[in-house]
Structure to design on (91 residues):
């Protein structure tokens, strides 16, 4: 009898853990599905790796400077903020 009680409690706890963790797991799966096809963690990490020729770093710098320039042109940041951010990127 005690054996069945222990097994029953274990099954109940297992079901409780599955029930509690189902929502966060499904949210993680849904978030993973919503990542655009051209951007993923592996691609992002690969872009930030240092290559022998420096082409990857140069691409990231030019993209960031272009993004900063767009923000400046839209009025989101001032000329001084643009210069400081650009200097920080180039250091």
């Amino acid at each position: 009898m005690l054996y069945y009680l222990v097994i029953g409690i274990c099954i109940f706890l297992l079901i409780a853990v599955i029930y509690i963790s189902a929502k966060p797991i499904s949210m993680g799966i849904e978030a993973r599905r919503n990542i655009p096809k051209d951007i993923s963690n592996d691609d992002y990490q690969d872009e930030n790796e240092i290559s022998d020729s420096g082409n990857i770093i140069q691409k990231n710098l030019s993209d960031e400077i272009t993004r900063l320039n767009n923000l400046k042109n839209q009025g989101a940041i001032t000329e001084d903020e643009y210069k400081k951010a650009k200097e920080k990127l180039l250091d």
The chain is about 80% helix and 0% strand. Confidence is low (pLDDT under 50) at residues 42-49.
